[in-house]
Amino acid sequence: MFESVQGLLDEHAELQKQLSDPAVYQDQALARKLGRRSAQLNGIVEAYNRWKTLGDDLEAAREMAAEDPEFAAEVPDLDAAHEEAQEKLRRLLIPRDPNDARNVILEVKGGEGGDEAALFAGDLLRMYTRYAESKGWKTEILSSTESDLGGYKDVQVAIKGSSNDPAEGVFAHLKFEGGVHRVQRVPVTESQGRIHTSAAGVLVFPEVDEPEEIEISQNDLKIDVYRSSGPGGQSVNTTDSAVRITHLPTGIVVAMQNEKSQLQNREAAMRVLRSRILAHQQEQIDAENADLRRSQVRTMDRSERIRTYNYPENRIADHRTGYKAYNLDAVMNGDLGPVITSCIEMDEQHRLDAIGE
């Protein structure tokens, strides 16, 4: 597996040369692309150098061990450190999702359960917002349709990070959140104290850095305008400011109504549309490629139940990884890290296993 390292070291050196050229920054899209790739390779270069240095030290200690007991005493610790460095390098060499470093547009939709499902969708939005705050990420509500009781029938939020390192990317962490999230609790509307089960759906799309990344012909768009509405269907604006855009080749539909300006709603809708088209293109690539590029954790089946939130037991359970903990109150307040880590680790192990097959 390590045979590929030299090519990556050469690529990293070439990238450093390009990034030191001021002319590169005249094309911001190119500079971002090169910076993102450089950040990904930085970790590999550092891990390789440590692995090689420890290997050299271990070899020297073994050669000197027969003559000097002090060197012999160092061998076990150096051997363990070398193996640890080798495993870290091996994991870094796993082919990454090309979108890992991107920001995301995350959508939460109330599912079965009526008002209770909408309230749960609002709770999930708060959970993701708090988690983003803990990571130092920025959030921006793009569109929302509130329910009568204060939850959300649907809501779209953009989440933006600050690192070019794919391992620290927003999409790298949140891409496993797509699917059906099930909640078990006593709804506020339940007078008998009975536990109900309802659900909300989550969709996660990598956000496009530059509009030029995704070519969209105006002839491929069907654009409708209409009056926006609020809870209960009442009219919010007296002008046709809401926008619905249909991408005819893929059938993807995006509607926006949060802004009072039709132009602002159209710009937001195009932003979401580009992200959905990018995700659609990646789905097609993943479907065509071998198992190495697929994930057992991140499924494209958006109807799959991925997680259960049980309030009476204060339990959170991920059905893909087997993760279970009894700190649901903390998770709903943004302490989502361990749950997401279980998904990342399972996905990495699956990719490692696929390489070894």
Automatic annotation (TrEMBL):
Residues of the Prokaryotic-type class I peptide chain release factors domain: 227-243
Cytoplasm keyword on record: yes
Keywords tagged on the record: Cytoplasm, Methylation, Protein biosynthesis
Modified residues (N5-methylglutamine): Q234
Alphabetical list of Pfam families matching this protein: PCRF (PF03462), RF-1 (PF00472)
Keyword check for Ion transport: no
Transmembrane annotation, as ranges: none
Record GO cellular component, one term: cytoplasm
Family: Belongs to the prokaryotic/mitochondrial release factor family.
The protein's role, per its UniProt record: Peptide chain release factor 1 directs the termination of translation in response to the peptide chain termination codons UAG and UAA.
Protein name listed in UniProt: Peptide chain release factor 1
Protein species of origin: Sinomonas puerhi
